[in-house]
């Protein structure tokens, strides 16, 4: 075993080596561009970070000169990118904290302008508007200018998308609860939302003829129904299927969000018929057999674009695309899993049991049937047996139990989707995503993953939700 001090020494030496390597890459890059922009060597640790931030995060121009100041040199952006990429996770957190804390909003001038704005309330409108504009400008964090400039250098936009992914990770993992980090996240999100607005996105249909690199990414990014092999992938982009992605000029070759569609006669009630059972790979599509579009999988590929709503825009754009290809098509539906239903139900059963209200959840007749079907020992509260049954998933192997539980679970599931809210929206994230996009909850399908397969217990714990949005 390596002792702790040895590990520390090793880490430190790696850091020194890494900073030298960063410097080398940066210098090489500067030589390629034909000019040197990296004159001072970077020191490691906190002082190195402070030094680099002071150099590359230029002060905001004054309000009067804001439209006239020349942009800072591109080298500032490159230096920031290379430095950041060379840091480890812990140092990235440290660096982001420094950036957001020491190079954010100038609080003193904000409060002075806020006071000034209050003082001008009796003055004419033009004066008020001018003070408001100054106040708005003063609310710009100093680092925002650097972020905007980074987006203009090659690879800069992708760097910022990845940077936001790191910031989100810091926030969700609670590695830092700093409000400066939250501010940095908001600034990045609003910049990315502008740059990735729907007019700047390109819709691409992915087919078997698409570049291999793209097909590989489509397979790798699939988050809902994993792609098993190349044949599986070929089918997902073959006849009676459509696969679309949004791409962006600043991130060439990178599908940002991917939507898979099945073209069917009716709204499918199970996923097996879509991802497992296919017409032959070479069959020709018969337009007369295509009445419905089933959106059976959507995956966003860039964690840093969370909240930019690319999935929402993609679904709407694809509906228009399909309507122009199949003018008679009138049914557009998702076929979605309902993650979280089982754990919600277990929580509900435990809570009712604790409160001594277990019996309220089912009718007397249903409890009797559960007791009989589970062969519960006399005196065992039926709510406990039901909770155990649901957590083990054993009921799926028993026809008798499935018959008893179907009406009960379907009723709970309908309530879970329809009645359980968080901040006024559906608690279930998948339902919320579709409902927010303008869809309507249409049908709950019982055991849609179960059809013709007996060995996929994990998947069949949920039922599925079909959401039908009419055009
Ligand atoms: O990023 P957001 O979740 O805020 O919104 P988007 O519209 O950009 O993306 C929505 C998706 C459902 C595509 C996204 O959240 C995702 O990829 N989720 C995991 C896969 C899934 O549940 N479909």
TrEMBL record:
Main localization, broad class: cytoplasm
Record-linked InterPro entries: Malonyl_CoA_deC, Malonyl_CoA_deC_C, Malonyl_CoA_deC_C_sf, MCD_N, MCD_N_sf
Pathway: Metabolic intermediate biosynthesis; acetyl-CoA biosynthesis; acetyl-CoA from malonyl-CoA: step 1/1
Catalysis performed (reactions): malonyl-CoA + H(+) = acetyl-CoA + CO2
Pfam families, sorted: MCD (PF05292), MCD_N (PF17408)
Keyword Transport: no
EC number(s) from the headed UniProt entry: 4.1.1.9
Domain of life: Eukaryota
One GO biological process term: malonyl-CoA catabolic process
Gene3D superfamilies assigned: Malonyl-CoA decarboxylase, catalytic domain, Malonyl-CoA decarboxylase, oligemerization domain
GO molecular function list: malonyl-CoA decarboxylase activity
Residue ranges occupied by any Malonyl-CoA decarboxylase N-terminal domain in the UniProt entry: 103-196
Malonyl-CoA decarboxylase C-terminal domain: residues covered: 199-449
Compartments (UniProt record): Cytoplasm; Mitochondrion; Peroxisome
Keywords: Cytoplasm, Decarboxylase, Fatty acid biosynthesis, Fatty acid metabolism, Lipid biosynthesis, Lipid metabolism, Lyase, Mitochondrion, Peroxisome, Transit peptide
Broad class of enzyme this protein falls into: lyase
GO-annotated cellular components: mitochondrial matrix; peroxisomal matrix
Keyword Oxidoreductase assigned: no
Protein's name according to its UniProt entry: Malonyl-CoA decarboxylase, mitochondrial
Species the sequence originates in: Parambassis ranga
Organism lineage string: Eukaryota, Metazoa, Chordata, Craniata, Vertebrata
């Amino acid at each position: 075993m390596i002792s702790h001090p040895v590990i520390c020494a090793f880490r430190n030496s790696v850091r020194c080596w890494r900073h030298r390597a960063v410097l080398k890459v940066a210098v090489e890059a500067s030589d390629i561009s034909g000019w040197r922009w990296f004159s001072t060597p970077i020191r490691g640790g906190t002082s190195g970070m402070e030094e680099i931030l002071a150099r590359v995060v230029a002060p905001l121009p004054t309000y009067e000169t804001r439209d006239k100041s020349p942009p800072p040199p591109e080298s500032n952006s490159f230096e920031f990118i290379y430095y950041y990429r060379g840091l480890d996770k812990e140092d990235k957190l440290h660096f982001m904290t420094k950036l957001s804390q020491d190079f954010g909003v100038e609080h003193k001038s904000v409060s002075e302008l806020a006071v000034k704005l209050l003082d001008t309330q009796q003055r004419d409108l033009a004066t008020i508007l001018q003070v408001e504009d100054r106040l708005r400008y003063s609310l710009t964090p100093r680092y925002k200018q650097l972020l905007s400039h980074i987006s203009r250098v090659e690879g800069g936009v992708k760097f910022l998308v990845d940077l936001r992914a790191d910031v989100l990770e810091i926030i969700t993992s609670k590695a830092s609860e700093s409000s400066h980090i939250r501010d940095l996240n908001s600034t990045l999100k609003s910049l990315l939302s502008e740059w990735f607005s729907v007019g700047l996105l390109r819709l691409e249909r992915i087919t078997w003829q698409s570049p291999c690199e793209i097909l590989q990414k489509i397979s790798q990014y699939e988050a809902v129904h994993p792609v098993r092999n190349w044949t599986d992938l070929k089918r997902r982009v073959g006849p009676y299927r459509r696969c679309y992605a949004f791409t962006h000029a600043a991130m060439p070759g990178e599908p940002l969000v991917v939507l898979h569609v099945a073209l069917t006669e009716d709204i499918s009630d199970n996923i097996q018929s879509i991802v497992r059972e296919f017409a032959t790979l070479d069959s020709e599509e018969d337009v007369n057999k295509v009445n419905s579009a089933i959106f059976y999988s959507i995956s966003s590929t860039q964690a840093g674009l969370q909240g930019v709503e690319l999935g929402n825009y993609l679904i709407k754009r694809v509906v228009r695309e399909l309507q122009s290809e199949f003018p008679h098509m009138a049914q557009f539906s998702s076929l979605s899993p309902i993650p979280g239903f089982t754990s919600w139900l277990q929580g509900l059963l435990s809570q009712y049991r604790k409160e001594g209200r277990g019996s309220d959840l089912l009718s007397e007749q249903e409890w009797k049937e559960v007791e009989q079907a589970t062969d519960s020992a006399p005196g065992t509260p039926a709510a406990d047996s039901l909770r155990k049954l649901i957590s083990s998933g054993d009921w799926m192997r028993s026809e008798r139990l499935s018959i008893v539980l179907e009406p009960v679970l379907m009723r709970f599931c309908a309530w879970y989707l329809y009645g359980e809210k968080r901040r006024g929206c559906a608690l279930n994230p998948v339902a919320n995503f579709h409902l927010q996009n303008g869809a309507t909850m249409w049908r709950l399908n019982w055991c849609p993953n179960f059809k013709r397969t007996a060995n996929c217990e994990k998947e069949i714990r949920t039922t599925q939700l079909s959401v039908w949005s009419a055009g």
